[in-house]
């Protein structure tokens, strides 16, 4: 029987969401995205992370990863709010 070495779905979601936040951060720093567009994307990411965090079936280790990423996205949004 073969062993499935792929990361579980939760880890994959976290990696993808983290990549999205990091890409958005780089885009903001390089000014290759409009501030309004960045705010809209961040709003959606933060709402999505909030929904995931609110899942009662979410394992605690995954919850802490999503919470840290939501905090990172909120900090990025705070920087945009000063624009």
| Biggest sheet overview | none
**What is the rounded distance between the termini?**
56 Å
Radius of gyration: 15 Å
The averaged pLDDT comes out at 89
Find the structural class using helix and strand composition. mainly alpha
Helical amount: over 70%
Number of helices: 3
- Topology as a string of helices (H) and strands (E): HHH
Gross geometry:
elongated
Low-confidence stretches: none
Multimerization state:
single chain
Percentage of β-strand residues: under 5%
The tally of strands reads 0
Q: Can you put this structure into words, describing what you see?
A:
The chain is mostly helical and 83 residues long. It has a domain at 36-83. The chain is built from 3 helices and no strands. It has helices at 9-29, 35-53, 60-81. The chain is elongated and about 40 Å long. The termini are far apart. The model has no long low-confidence stretch (mean pLDDT 89). It comes from Burkholderia multivorans. This is Major surface protein 3.
Observed structural traits:
3 helices, single chain, elongated, Major surface protein 3, mainly alpha, 75% helix
Structure in a nutshell:
The chain is mostly helical.
Describe the SSE topology.
Blueprint (H helix, E strand, L loop, with lengths): L8 H21 L5 H19 L6 H22 L2
């Amino acid at each position: 029987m073969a062993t499935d070495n792929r990361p579980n779905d939760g880890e994959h979601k976290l990696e993808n969401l983290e990549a999205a936040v990091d890409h958005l951060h780089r885009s903001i720093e390089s000014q290759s995205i409009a501030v309004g567009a960045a705010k809209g994307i961040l709003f959606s990411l933060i709402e999505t992370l909030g929904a995931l965090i609110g899942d009662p079936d979410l394992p605690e280790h995954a919850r802490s990863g999503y919470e840290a990423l939501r905090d990172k996205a909120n900090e990025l949004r705070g920087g945009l709010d000063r624009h």
